[in-house]
Each structure stands twice: as structure tokens, then as C-alpha cells.
Amino acid sequence: MSLKTNAPDVAARVSSIGKQAVFAAAVSLTRSAKAAQGAIRNDMVRAFVGPTNYALNGTFIKGATKTNLQAKVWVKDDAFGKGTTADRFLLPEIYGGTRGQKGMERLLQANRLMQAGWFAVPAAGAQLDGNGNVKRSQIIQIMSQLKLQRSAGFESRATGSDRSRRTIARQGVTYFALPTAYRGLKPGIYLKRKFAHGAAIRPVFIFVPLVQYAVRLRFFEVGQTTMERTFRYNFDIELAKAIASARLGGRQ
Q1: Is the pTM of this model over 0.70?
Q2: Which domain holds residue 200?
């Protein structure tokens, strides 16, 4: 939100009053951006099923200053710690379309276990957490057995050694990937569980060429409406405070 484009009448008022109004405008814009960020967070709760704190905290604010009367709310594009950056999974929900590649997908493609540009979609054998995401422990097991990454605590790579066989036997399942369809099985990652009389195979991820998202998060609608609704109220309060403070300072 910028005074020049969103509130030209206020911009003119700021110019006529002087530095007290400039300060009040900067504070008001930043406060309104904070309100917009909260409203967008609430819309995530409406739009998504059990959103994680990582997603809910996936936006940032750039506050206004006395030399730049513009405030912004946008999606984080750098990882705070390990994990997928927020813009990779939030932007498709804002604009629609396809999402970016996840880390596991990039590793699968680098190891020629999945076709370039494809996506891994959770299937019946995926273990989901309370937020509807595949549990990290299962992903680590899969990546370990497929020799995609080393991770302490879940080292179960199928190396053929006695230790490897004992570890996989203790976990009870073997994971394997099919880059292409095979004997009626679609491309994907499968788990094989052995029983006393036979074995069962279930898909954990299915590989697909496209993941299409509809617009679910009303980022611009909610954010802009909130900023415009709160700014003038904040500005009147902050301007009155700034003018009162200036008068008091003059008497002193």
C-alpha cells in the first residue's frame, strides 16, 4: 500500500501538514500492514485444512519509513531453517497453477527415479500427520532406503549387508521406486510389507506430470481490503498524537 496510489488525498494532506504527518503516515501504514498480515493468516485457516505454523508464519512485512511511505506484505522466499521455502507452496494457492518442486522430488529426479518435471502425490500408503502432510519420519525412511540421503536414526539403506537387512526387517517395510509403469503399477514409490504367508504392496507416492491448484488463499483481496479499511483510522489517531507531541515540545 502506497499513499500515492491508494490514498492520494491523504498524501496531499501529508504534504501540506509537514513532518508530523509524514511520521504519522509511516507508522499508520506499517500498523495497517500488520493488520493485513493477521487477516491473511486468518484466511489461511479458512482455506487450508490444519495449516502448519510454518505456513501460517510464511509472510513478512516491509514497513513504511519517513522517506518511503509504502508498506508491503508478501510471502517469504528464503528458508528460515531447513525445509521448503514458503513461496513454493503458498504462491500456487494465491495465483493458482502448478507448485514448485519439493526437495524429495528434486532428489528423485537427480537419481533418475522420477521423470524430470513430474511431481510426487501422496497415496494410500502415506502416513499423514495432523496437518495432512506426509510424516517426516516416513519420508526419511524412504529417502534412506532409496539411497537419496543419509539421516541419523533412520539409516536403512538396502546395501545388502547383514546390518542393513536387520534394520529393514525391524522397520517391517521395504520401499522401492518405479520410474515408469510396471506390471499394472503406476510410476511412484511403493512399500512392500511381508507377512507369514505372502506380502502386500501399497503405493506411498504416485508420480504425475502435473499438479494443478485452484486459487484458495485470498491474499490480495483480504490484504488490500484490510489495509485500506484500517489505514485512515490509524492515520487520524497517529496524526493527532504527532501534532500534540510537537505542540508540547514547542512549549517546552
Answers
A1: no
A2: 101-210
